[in-house]
Amino acid sequence: MTTTIHKNFIAGKWVASKSRKTFANINPARKGEVVGRFQQSTPDDVERAVAAAVAAQAAWKKTPAPKRGEILFRVAELLVKNKEALARDMTCEMGKVLGETRGDVQEAIDMGYYAAGEGRRLMGETVPSELKDKFCMSVRMPVGVVGAITPWNFPIAIPSWKLFPALVAGNTVVLKPASDTPLSSVHFAKLFEKAGLPPGVLNLVTGSGAEVGQPLIDHPQVNLVSFTGSTDTGRVVASHCAGLMKPYSLEMGGKNAIIVMDDADLELALEGVIWGAFGTTGQRCTATSRVIVHKKVMKKFTALLLEKTRALQLGDGLLPKTDVGPLINEAQRSKVASYCEIGRNEGARLLTGGAPEIKGALKQGFFFQPTVFGDVSPKMRIAQEEIFGPVVSLIVCNDLEHAIGLVNDSSFGLSSAIYTRDVNRAFQAIEGLDTGITYINASTIGAEIQLPFGGTKGTGNGHREAGTAALDIFTEWKSVYVDYSGKLQKAQIED
Ligand code: NAD
After folding, report:
1. Residue 68's closest CA among 12, 118, 17?
2. From the CA of 254, how far away is ligand 1's center (Å)?
3. Domains along the chain?
4. Scanning 212, 249, 297, 314, which has the fewest C-beta atoms within 10 Å of its C-beta?
């Protein structure tokens, strides 16, 4: 079988990298299977892409926002039409089960429709003036050229969170996707092309963080960097952008926790923990990696959790019986294995899992056993650091106040959840949990696009994606004063 070679999308054309080199994208469920080859781009390709985005910016900014929104609406329609094929290809390059890759595409569909509608809103404010015959308003202006850098765990959804709001606001974009999942970005860019997006408004350059990501961040004509990925890379993005006085938004790691109180519906909490910890093989920024259980129900909950965890089926995400797909690559699997080793050495009790899964056909992929640690103390590294795999730590709590303190004892602050039947406890948790997202009687995963998404502390830098909050990243406020008095009026001076 011949392997398709995919190109970069620059100035409305599909072009090869100047390097003339490509890299392979492999199926993590069957590492011998090459999903496609992609351009191993260089700073020269970034230069071309940024030049195209700069050239397209003025006309795109001039295009009325409702017209921009109409094109995005057509992209959403094309996503609907192609949902199944996109989801299947995404499972092949990323590994998560088909139900979840369909959800990934659905998230982009939701964002597309939402942003398209924003083309007829993009609301600012009108406020009274302190002077007579003077009108005051604020309007949103595009920032210019956006450099968008994305991770591999949501190959279409995360690019969509950046592209749709950036484009509806009148920016042009250069997208650099993760090298483990470039196929979904190529598919996504093709839909923008098909929907009639003018050349240069969206450009796609594949390749490494060093050869593509870094030059994109540093490029003087890139006005804003929107990054989602690890905290380590986020720190690099932040330091470079700070040096250049360039605005940037960061969406980074998490160490998300579910609290299970003694009055919780334990079966419901169990489903939430299984879904949160092992969905996407634990490779979500919002994955449940700590479960803080009230001492009165710890024994019972642990038994239920172990039974359900051991019953999970590992396998190729395209197979209907599969619950948990592979990890993304060997490096990630080694990292997860090393955390299991760290957990054991720290004195946590390995209750199930803890090793790569190499039985039968599974040895062809990067599979790892769903893992539960008991007797985890809050300062252990497995309770503090992002593992990004199917590993969950059980931590005991005495009461709600104790539980909230444990959740907040983290350098991250993305998502949290509490299972309780007591409305007072639920509201105390909403108030006390220092995370960007809190769920009541639902897992730590499952954000909807019409609300702000992001976290506190080491998870972000104060911005939020999704909802109208995303527009605060992708626009600059302009305050406008219209004086129709025909004379000089002095604010703060005249009565
Ligand atoms: P990563 O940081 O390794 O890579 C993210 C992107 O940055 C990739 O495209 C990569 O090529 C690029 N990159 C790497 N080095 C770079 C550099 N020096 N300059 C510019 N770009 C560079 O992250 P990953 O492994 O792809 O993704 C997993 C991480 O993403 C996890 O930590 C997860 O929590 C986080 N994540 C966060 C969110 C969120 O919204 N908070 C969502 C999904 C994933």
Report:
1. 118
2. 12
3. 5-252+460-479 (3.40.605.10), 256-440 (3.40.309.10)
4. 297
